[in-house]
Amino acid sequence: MNRALTHGIIILGVLLFALPLWMILAGSTQDPGAIARGDLSLIPHWSGLHVYIDVLSSGGAGAQPVWRMLLVSFGMALTIAVGKIVISVLSAYAVTFFRFPFRMVAFWVIFITLMLPPEVRIIPTYDVIAGFGMINTFGGLTVPLMASATATLLFRQVFLVIPDELMEAARMDGAGPWRFLRDILLPVSAGNIAALFVILFVFGWNQYLWPLLVATDPKLDTIVIGIVKMIGVETQVEWNRVMAVAVLALLPPVAVVLLMQRWFVAGLTEGEK
Amino acid sequence: MRRTIFPGWLLPAALVLPQLALTVVFFLLPAGEAVWSSLTRTDPFGLSSVFVGIDNFNDLFADPLYVETILRTIGFVAAVCVISMGTALLLAVMVEGVVRGRGIYRTMLIWPYAVAPAVAGVIWLFLLHPQIGLLGRWLNHNLGWDYSLNGTQAMLLVILASAWKQVSYNFIFFVAGLQSVPRTVTEAARMDGAHGFYRFRTITLPLLMPTVFFLIVVNVVYAAFDTFGAIWALTQGGPGKATETMLVKVYRDGVINLDLGSSSAQSVVLMVGVIVLTAVQFRFMGKRGK
Asked: Which listed residue, A11, A158, A233, B222, has the most CB atoms within 10 A of its CB?
């Protein structure tokens, strides 16, 4: 095919994503009255950049300041990512390098959860959390989202291809189970852990339905919850602030993906197949 | 099967315990509870519940509104899959076809993976809002565009916002799939004089089919569940019920209208749907493994 045409199609594709991002970046610096009149333009007014300081420090009518929402989002994304990685490394380690009673039962109980994404059991899970008195707690927000088999299965696959000889050599050198995990398994699977971290961080950061349900206390508002709340009352919205918050809501996960792109892409396409 | 293992069973039991506990408490218990409450009916005061068998399901499927919701969800899911996968495939083939700028193109097409569906909804509001939207105000002026009144336009809006966010994911997998097509095969086809679209259709596409099938399953699950944020941000299922998917209805009936029996029955229908889908996926993955 014609080379110019190919590049043209790709550039159109790039713009399909870049332009909307530019639109909210430029729009966040403009006058809210002008936007409300339908004068949103793609030319930024650099003097309007102070809107970012405004939203970070003060939020808006009845809302939490955005720095607080960012903090909750960071806490949630990090807790889910780290917690799930730790839990699934340990359980994958147990089912691949040990024999214990009901090993396969344990494996299948974990495995079966692959089939149930959080959303389909959202209402009953809410009941369970309510039973534990964990509504409107950070634990209620994060812990149920750590329970999934995908990460366990991924680590199991990684561990299964580690040759027996490596394990024999380690044992001959007198390495116990913890040393083997720390000095051999973790370094070998560092790439997978990095990839999984990106996927889980984005997963945690982008949650909407679960926080909407389980954390009604505004103090636990994530930034994704916060931005949807902001557009809820359409009549007196300061649209430049909404766009600034939208930019702040997408920058951290985008930054994580871009910074760790190499591991993330490799891990995603290897892991999920 | 591994020949060398560590001895003892206390340590591994302790290692597997956290995952097992989470699974039991947050998967099996809720799933069991959903099945149980889908088979019972609670009196209006929430004082007692009686076992009613499959009555809730009979009611559900006898309700033309629910059947409509199912059909609407199927249409929505199909549209999101076709648009996001089609766009991603086109871009992946194009990007893999160029030498210069391939790396930067890839990065520029991968970053939207990180955008939350709810935030994608907000972005599309600024594009297509009939009064303030960059394109929406023009469409409103010339074509009477207003998705808060017109159900078809609302559906189109949530489809576009949901598909837009998912292109990156599909792009990543199509690029990986294209890279695993052996160079020698495409070169041989080129020598035989197969050009452009013909070569893509007869050589590349068949070799990409495993990726396509895998992505169909992932995209169906995405469109059915993860899009809740985009829909809730943009239309909340409206106007009327024009953009109410099955998950939106579960939320509306269970959380807002507090009809737990019906909402649980709907959850069970969704679970069965996902389990069937996963079974299909595993069957297909098993075949590919051989």
From this structure: B222
| B149-192 tens-digit pLDDT | 898 999 999 999 999 999 999 999 999 988 888 878 777 877 77
The parent domain of residue B74 ranges over 54-289
- Residue keyed to tokens 């366990």: A152
Tell me the β-bridge partners of B6.
A98
Q: What angle do CA A110, A114, A115 make, to 5 degrees?
A: 120
H or E element, residue B35? helix B29-38
Task: State whether B123 and A246 contact (CB < 8 Å).
Answer: yes
Number of A to B CB contacts under 8 A, please give it: 278
Ordered alpha helix ranges (H), chain A: 3-28, 32-36, 51-58, 66-97, 103-112, 122-131, 138-146, 150-160, 164-172, 177-180, 186-188, 190-205, 209-214, 223-230, 239-259, 261-271
Q: What are the tokens at A191?
A: 């790439």
Whole-number Å distance between alpha carbons of B133 and B259: 37
Residue B223: give its domain's CATH number.
1.10.3720.10
Min distance B121 CA to chain A CA atoms (Å)? 9
Task: Determine the residue type at B90.
Answer: L
pLDDT digits (tens, 9 = 90+) for A65-122: 889 999 999 999 999 999 999 999 998 888 888 888 788 888 888 877 766 777 777 8
